[in-house]
Amino acid sequence: MKTLSEKDIQERIAKLDYWDYEEGYLVTSLDFKDFADAFAMMTRIAFEAQAQNHHPEWSNVYNNLTIRLNTHDADGITEKDFALANKIEEIIKG
């Protein structure tokens, strides 16, 4: 899988509401009402990640969920990362 150029990454990330590009990852940090809401969102995202066969690095502390996307097989950001980031935004906004 081909990695995206820095220019392509910056153009695409500008179209996303919740994501930044940091240290080679697409990154978002989201706050929810409480732990149960954060965990419920993780569950919804997990099913989508599995369907796309693309699994994020993430952490959850109480009501905060931090997600990092990078295509490890390609050692960089690919279309796969943006496909999952876009779907995560749909789930969050849903």
TrEMBL record:
One matching Pfam family: Pterin_4a
Catalytic reaction(s) noted: (4aS,6R)-4a-hydroxy-L-erythro-5,6,7,8-tetrahydrobiopterin = (6R)-L-erythro-6,7-dihydrobiopterin + H2O
This protein's record includes keyword Lyase: yes
SUPFAM superfamilies: PCD-like
The name this protein goes by in its record: Putative pterin-4-alpha-carbinolamine dehydratase
Gene3D superfamilies referenced in this protein's UniProt entry, alphabetically: Transcriptional coactivator/pterin dehydratase
Keywords: Lyase
Xref: InterPro entries: PCD_sf, Pterin_deHydtase
Domain of life of the native organism: Bacteria
Record bears the keyword Ligase: no
